Amino acid sequence: MDRYEKSRIAGILGIIGNIFLLIIKGIIGLMTKSQSMIADAANSAGDIFASLMTYIGNKIASEPKDDTHNLGHGKAEYIFSMFISISMMAVALKLLYDSIISLVNMSTFEFSWMLVIVCIITIITKLSLYLYTNKLSKGDNNLLLDANKKDHRNDCIITTFTLISILLSLVNIYWFDSVVGIGISIWIFYTGLKIFIESFNVLMDKSLNEEDRNKILDVLKKYPEIKKYNHLNTTPVGYKYLVSITIFVDGNMSTFESHDIADKLEDDLDKLDFVYLAIIHVNPLNINEENKLEEIKKNKV
After folding, report:
1. Same structural domain for residues 257 and 222?
2. Of 27, 44, 151, 221, which residue is 20 to 30 A from 53 by alpha carbon distance?
3. Both 247 and 281 in a single domain?
């Protein structure tokens, strides 16, 4: 199963599961006026949107390259992840406002064992979705899958606190319900912000991290014919990177030999799991002139 099929399955399961949870949470939350349950229901509404964006973004990102998109459609994954993050932060701010007002007004709610049952159903559903999505995401650097996995995990934690606030109402402790609503809001906002930053970095063509950059340099070191290099540039293309390097070889080397080295280097770099395409530019180097410069440097020292 490839990364796009995994995202498609995760998106569909997320939509079905969250629609079910939204209905039961919304009905019970409004009936009992539990702020934490209403916040939890709103979180499920945001989850439906996130799952829908996962499905659409994955569908576009899986399209192969064409004449108008020579490097494929991989960045759609990050565009739709940004949509998810913005919606999460917007929902979080509204919930934060409502929860603070509820806390200030010392609002109460009607305890119902249905609230407890809904929480237990939610935890079981979300834990199952988390475990399955976590299994799907292994081995893939897939932001959409990772965002969904974290969202399911977060929901398990959030609903556990919702359950605690509901049980505390049995001993007339109602303020904790609003506090949980505030906590849920902050958690949703923080998660959304992290996804936004990661998506933004890719869309702004942030360079490869230092660890993977060093892996490229390790490959270069395997070629003694390469005397030096410059212009090592990396540009994100979806979840992988376009890598371009200018290498310098002995100017006395034939054109065929120098380009053969470049072709082999490109093949080796393409084998790295984070490289979408490697482009090598070859320049001749005057070895005698380089040796003279090195001698001058040594004498100055």
Report:
1. yes
2. 27
3. yes
Q: How many CB atoms lie within 10 A of CB 20?
A: 14
b vs e for 33-51, b when ≥16 Cβ sit within 10 Å of the residue's Cβ? Answer: ebbbbbbbbbbbbbbbbbb
Residue 45 in tokens: 């509404």
How far is Cα 67 from Cα 71, in angstroms, rounded to an integer? Answer: 9
Q: Domain of 94?
A: 3-203
Rounded CA-CA distance 277/153 in Å is 35
Is there a single domain that holds both residue 21 and residue 64? yes
> Cα torsion for 196, 201, 202, 204, to the nearest 10°?
120
> What's the rounded Cα separation, in Å, for the pair 16 and 125?
11
pLDDT in tens, 276-287: 889 999 988 876
Residue 75 sits in the same domain as residue 100: yes
Listed residue (51, 78, 79, 76) closest to 61, CA to CA: 76
Rounded to 10 degrees, the C-alpha dihedral 129/189/96/127 comes to 10
pLDDT digits 0-9 by tens, 198-230: 888 877 778 888 889 999 999 999 998 998 888
User: What's the predicted TM-score (pTM) here?
Assistant: 0.64
DSSP 8-state symbol, 301: -
Distance CA 235, CA 138 (A): 24
Read off the tokens for 198. 């990661």
Could you give the CA distance from residue 193 to residue 189 in angstroms, rounded to a whole number? 6
Structure tokens at 117: 């049952």
Check whether residue 182 and residue 292 sit in a common domain: no
Pairwise CA distance, residues 134 & 145, whole Å:
8
- Residue 35 sits in the same domain as residue 131: yes
Name, in order, each residue with C-beta under 8 angstroms of 214's C-beta and a sequence gap of 6 or more: none
Q: Quick one: 108 and 145 in the same domain?
A: yes
